[in-house]
């Protein structure tokens, strides 16, 4: 039997490269997946694909920086699925600029998307997760997708690094709190390195704009030199770790940090 059979998972940024891979993996593992994304049309596309492959999925539009929208999505999830077992705060984004070019609006954007969005998600989903866990033999799971930028300085990304760094300690704080309060909800975080999605292109382009490189190919090659494994990651390699943290095989993991970066932070 699939390891997540009978559970419901809500994934933010579910239409993106990493998000859609997470949705596919959780669906294959038996979960009913709520594909949440700012782009409702693309969320619908992902959900239809999961259903056509024999899974169960619904799509919802969600601006993660809007608490009222979060409240509506959690309510819809409970009405449609009857419960919520897994919350994956995956949605994120970056304004790739050095500090002197970073506006106050840029700063607020990255903090809103990478930190406040997860706060709103946990805040609004907590009671649903607790209720579901109280009547289920399995505990709930919250999985926050941070970044290696939360572990080491990322040049040209001060706001993104601050947001993901905040998400790191937010995760630990609520993980300890929920465990001690007996909520039966485990909270853990994942720290991806560079992953091969359309969102990697702006990073390469930023090196061209700064004059660090003369072509996208040379920018990519220099970034790859930082990775001992010799390549950037695939979305499914993040999705498999999400599946592990969502399931019972990680039952003793609370506030854990799983780094998935091809050796970048180990070097």
Walk me through this protein's architecture.
It comes from Bradyrhizobium erythrophlei. By secondary structure, the chain is of the alpha/beta class. The chain has 2 domains: 8-195 and 234-259, Rossmann fold (3-Layer(aba) Sandwich); 197-232, no CATH class. It contains 8 helices and 7 strands. It has helices at residues 17-28, 40-52, 67-81, 104-134, 158-180, 201-209, 216-224, 235-246, and strands at 8-12, 32-37, 56-61, 86-89, 140-145, 185-192, 257-260. Strands 3-2-1-4-5-6-7 form a 7-stranded parallel beta sheet, sandwiched between helices. Strand 5 (140-145), helix 5 and strand 6 (185-192) form a beta-alpha-beta unit. Helix 1 (17-28) crosses helix 8. The longest helix has 31 residues, at 104-134. The radius of gyration is 18 Å and the shape is globular. The termini are far apart. The model has no long low-confidence stretch (mean pLDDT 94).
Summarize the structure.
The protein is 46% helix and 15% strand. The protein is of the alpha/beta class. The protein has a seven-stranded parallel sheet with strand order 3-2-1-4-5-6-7, sandwiched between helices.
N- to C-terminal distance = 39 Å
Radius of gyration computed on alpha carbons: 18 Å
Order of H and E elements: EHEHEHEHEHEHHHE
Please provide the count of β strands: 7
Helix proportion: 40-55%
CATH architecture of the largest domain: 3-Layer(aba) Sandwich
**Content-based structural category:** alpha/beta
Q: Strands of the largest sheet, in order across it?
A: 3-2-1-4-5-6-7
Q: What is the CATH first-level class name of the largest domain? A: Alpha Beta
**How many DSSP H or I helices?**
8
Contiguous low-pLDDT stretches (5 residues minimum) are: none
What's the CATH H-level superfamily name of the largest domain? NAD(P)-binding Rossmann-like Domain
Give a short account of the largest sheet: 7 strands, parallel
Shape: globular
């Amino acid at each position: 039997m699939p390891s997540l059979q009978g559970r419901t998972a809500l994934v933010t940024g579910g239409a993106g490269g990493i998000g859609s891979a997470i949705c596919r993996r959780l669906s294959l593992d038996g979960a009913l997946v709520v594909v949440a994304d700012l782009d409702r049309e693309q969320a619908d596309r992902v959900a239809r694909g999961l259903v056509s492959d024999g899974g169960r999925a619904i799509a919802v539009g969600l601006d993660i920086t809007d608490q009222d929208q979060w409240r509506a999505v959690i309510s819809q999830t409970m009405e449609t699925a009857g419960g919520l077992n897994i919350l994956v705060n995956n949605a994120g984004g970056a304004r790739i600029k050095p500090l002197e070019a970073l506006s106050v609006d840029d700063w607020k954007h990255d903090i809103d998307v990478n930190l406040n969005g997860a706060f709103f998600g946990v805040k609004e989903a907590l009671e649903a997760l607790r209720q579901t866990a109280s009547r289920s033999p399995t505990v709930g799971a919250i999985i926050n997708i941070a970044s290696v930028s939360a572990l080491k300085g990322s040049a040209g990304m001060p706001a993104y690094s601050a947001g993901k760094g905040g998400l790191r300690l937010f995760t630990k704080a609520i993980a300890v709190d929920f465990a001690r309060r007996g909520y039966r909800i485990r909270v853990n975080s994942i720290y991806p390195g560079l992953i091969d999605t359309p969102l990697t292109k702006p990073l390469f382009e930023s090196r061209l704009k700064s004059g660090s490189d003369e072509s996208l190919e040379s920018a990519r090659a220099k970034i790859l030199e930082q990775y001992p494994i010799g390549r950037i990651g695939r979305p499914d390699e993040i999705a498999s770790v999400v599946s592990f943290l969502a399931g019972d095989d990680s039952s003793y993991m609370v506030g854990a940090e799983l780094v998935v970066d091809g050796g970048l932070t180990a070097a």
